[in-house]
Amino acid sequence: MTPAAPGIPGVRKAAAVVLALGLSAALAACSGDDGGGGGGGKGGGDPKLSVTGAYVSQPPMTDMAAGYLTVRNAGGGADELTSVTTPLASEVTLHTTKGTRMKQVSSLDVPADSRLELSSGGDHLMLTNLSHRPKVGEKVSFTLHFATSDPIEIKVPVEPTTYRPKD
Ligand SMILES: [Cu+2]
Predict the structure, then answer these.
(1) Any signal peptide, and if so, which residues (predicted)?
(2) What pLDDT, in 10s, does the model give residues 22-52?
(3) DSSP secondary structure string for all residues of 24-77
(4) From CA 65, how far away is CA 77, in angstroms rounded?
């Protein structure tokens, strides 16, 4: 699993994720590769990322917590979320959910001109080996690492276990 070429290999997986989330409109963004470009550039351009709606849900137990967020990509190049670091947990893993099964993955696609959405019941961040039990009202800092883009640092609020974002 080398995140070397963010453009082409992720497309099929990205489409599956997008379909699973019911965002079929985003499929149009996957057809941007016409195999033309020669020198230097990165095909359709660079990813342009921003993060919204991040939260950690207050865990019922002390040793594990889940994190959710949306990474928007306003750029013409795809990217991948490759890891997350936080002082709250010595280990953060990326999980996808298929049906009721969770699977650890090494990266999550952030398709060009689209977004990666982590949400309760879907893809999520799993935080283990917590430094303490996070409490509602607390803010936790997360650093998101990407295959192409520079790391993004955010402050993430802790929400009640039953919290569901509205959109
Ligand atoms: Cu999980």
Answers:
(1) 1-28
(2) 433 333 222 233 333 333 344 579 999 999 9
(3) GGGGGGGG---S---SSS-TT----EEEEEEEEEPPSSSSEEEEEEEEEE-SSS
(4) 31
Q: How far is CA 101 from the centre of its chain?
A: 18
Q: How far is the CA of 75 from the centre of ligand 1 (A)?
A: 29
Distance 125 CA to ligand 1 centre (A): 7
Report the pLDDT value the prediction gives residue 23, as an integer from 0 to 100.
Answer: 36
Instruction: Tell me which residue has tokens 């306003």.
Output: 74
Give the model confidence (pLDDT) of 139-148 as tens digits. Answer: 999 999 999 9
Q: What is the pLDDT averaged over residues 83-106?
A: 95
Ligand 1: centre distance to CA 47 (Å):
27
